[in-house]
Structure formats: structure tokens, C-alpha cells
# Entry
Amino acid sequence: MIAFKFLALGAVGPFTGFAWPTPTRSGPGAWVEVPPESVPNRGIHACLTDDLSFWLDDELWIAELAGPVQRSSDQLISSRGRLLQRTAWARDVAIELGKACTFKARDAAARVLQGNGRATDADRLLSCSNLVELKGVAREISGPCKTDSLANLAGYVADAATFANVGEVATVTYIVAEFARASAGATAAASERAWQGRWIAERLKLPQPDARAIV
# Structure
């Protein structure tokens, strides 16, 4: 089945240091295999669209998994896999993602503030047009009282804007998912992660994996 795999620069596994065989003019990269009996403790790991933001790295590859494919909480595991094509994922796309996530959280925080009688704070957040301005305003709103749960939501926005501004996108996606958890619960956090993955897929026009192949 088609899946996705983030790798470090040079198609290197970020956790294992394994250098994946890359596609050539004649076809896909060579198959990489582990003994089937080693799965799921060891195996070939990739992911579906909704899980992409858990694994952000330098390169994003379209991969193919063969044989039985199992799913864990945020990844796929198989005994055979190969790289088919490198996508257009690059630093500028990652920076776009970080900004999109941050302003989405800004809008969500504003809605919560508006719904709880804090229209002035909500309007201040919504008036921000760039990350530096948003960081400053959100920090001012969150600063006066650490026990103010509504103001603390603006603290998440300030943190996201801080890391988005310096391109630390994996940190941004985590913070924004935790913001969703703090404001609306675990289901909202999962939905945020799925939205992040779909943003990547739509921005890069990725193929849609067929999840029916998962056992």
C-alpha cells in the first residue's frame, strides 16, 4: 500500500541512521526487508496522512509497504517497504505549516475568549497580522495571572508564534495540538493533528493511501 515516510537529509532514518535506497531513473528504490516475525517490535515504519505531523523531518517520501501492514497509534508497520518518490516538502513549506497552525490556534483562542466575555482580548488577537505581533499580544494577554485558564490559552498561542517565527515547526505542531487538548479535550487534539496532516497532503498534492490494506 502507499504510505508516507519522513527521513533526515539524504534519505536517512532519523532514529536508526539507516540510509534508504532511493529511486533511480529506472524505478523505485530497492525493497528493504525485516523478518516478518520481528513485526511489530521491529519493522518498516511509515504513516498515513493524518499522522504526518508527528514525524516531521527534512525529507518526505512517498513509500510503498508490502505484506501485512499493521497500524499503531500514529504509524504503520510492515516487514517490507521501499521509497517511490520524494515529495516537494521543503523548509519553506514547513514554515507555511507552522504559520497556518499558529493562526488557526489564534482564531480558536479568540472564539473561546469571545464566548466567555473577553471580547477585547479576542479582538486584540484577531488584529495581529504577523507572528511577531501575535507573539507580543498573546504574551501580554497570558501574562498577568497564571491561574487564569482563559488567558493561559493565549500563552499557547504566544509559544506557537515564538517557535513558528524561528522555523521550529515540529514544536509548533505539538504546541497547537496541546492547545486543542487544553481548550477542548483529547478528541480535539487528535483532530488538530489530523488537520495538520491533511494540510501537508493538500499543499503537496499527495496521493491518498488505501487504508483497507491495513490488517
Q: What stands out?
A: The chain has a mean pLDDT of 94. The CA atoms of residues 177 and 189 lie 5 Å apart. The longest strand covers residues 59-66. DSSP finds six helices and seven strands in the chain.
